[in-house]
Amino acid sequence: MSKNAPPCPLCKTKNVWKDGIRQTKYGNIQRYLCRECGYRFSKTSWNRSDELEHVQRVHREPLNMHPSLLSNRQICALETKRVKNLVKVETRTENRLAGATKHSEAEIRGKIVEVTWRLKKDGYSKSTIYSYSKFLILLIKYGANLFDPESVKDIIATQKSWGTSSKLMAVAAYTFFTSLNQIPWNPPKYKPKRRLPFIPLENEIDNLIAAAGKKLATSLQLVKETEMRIGEACKLRWIDVDLQRTTITVNDPEKGSNPRMFKISSKLASMINTLPRKNDYVFGKQKPRNIASHLRRVRKRLAQKLQNPRLNYIHFHTLRHWKATMEYHKTRNIIYVMQMLGHRDIKNTLIYTHLIEFEGDEYHSAVAKTTEEAKSLIETGFEYVCTHQNMLLFRKRK
Question: Which residue in 111, 165, 268, 303 could disulfide with 264, CB within 3.0 to 4.6 Å?
Answer without folding.
Answer: 268
